């Protein structure tokens, strides 16, 4: 079984009476990807700063591999890297120089080799002698990630790693993050993009009003927004009305003139039974589709405060 590498217990933080974090609890296991979601201003960056020792909390405890970050920040900081929202790379230096410098600062035995191998791994070898100010946004973020791997940290904290990237660069970065996980790294990221959390995360936590109000796997989280639905679309309004009566036992909901939605809470045969009933009664369907809630639906449900 994977061991716990990060434990956030009852963490609190207020800024001049503004209680941003009231009681945050998160446990993260080795080799997992955790995505912290929350609306703007929910306190995601504040939590990351506390967890990485950049900010003191007003209560609670953060341990990284059993080391309390508040008591022993130097020892804890050897176990992780933190890539903040603002890129930490130096635009004047080349990609190679940035990596070489950080490898030296982190006392790598062979900083040159570390820099070269990370440039290759992050597909930056060709651009290694260009000043970073000439890099695209995607290349800069890849360099950020490469920098975060110097020193071989156990846990990697990423604050909104793909904000501002185009879809192709985002996908490339997602692939890189997944590869980091395959190599055994534990990753804790914050994101505004629900599809990012859905694609990457093993565990998602939703921060609202200073607490994690919901957490689980992406699929578990989607259940919060309700059941899968079967949407039936008819050609004629009359057919819709007949179908509404026929399917009464499934509690159908009329969505539009020619549309009916049915919650698929019962069992997996519901869809077949509904379609059979319509065929038997010769009610012509234009089309039908299954609708699974997305994390966007969850986000809307939770930010509206229904949970
Ligand atoms: N140093 C500070 N002094 C006073 N208030 C602060 C400070 N840092 C953050 N805050 C406040 O704490 C709240 C949470 O901010 P934080 O940046 O952690 O949110 P966030 O969830 O990361 O938001 P975003 O998604 O917009 O980055 C905000 O109301 C912010 O104004």
Automatic annotation (TrEMBL):
Q: Which protein are we looking at?
A: ABC-2 type transport system ATP-binding protein
- In this chain the ABC transporter domain maps to 6-234
SUPFAM superfamilies, from UniProt? P-loop containing nucleoside triphosphate hydrolases
Supply the InterPro entries for this chain: AAA+_ATPase, ABC_transporter-like_ATP-bd, ABC_transporter-like_CS, ABC_transporter_ATP-binding, DrrA1/2-like_C, P-loop_NTPase
Q: Which family does it belong to?
A: Belongs to the ABC transporter superfamily.
Highest taxon of the source? Bacteria
Q: What are the UniProt keywords, alphabetically? A: ATP-binding, Nucleotide-binding, Transport
- PANTHER family given for it? ABC TRANSPORTER ATP-BINDING PROTEIN (PTHR42711), ABC TRANSPORTER ATP-BINDING PROTEIN NATA (PTHR42711:SF5)
Q: Name one Pfam family in it.
A: ABC_tran
Q: Which GO terms describe its molecular function?
A: ATP binding
List the lineage, top down. Answer: Bacteria, Bacillati, Bacillota, Bacilli, Bacillales
Q: Which organism is it from?
A: Priestia endophytica DSM 13796
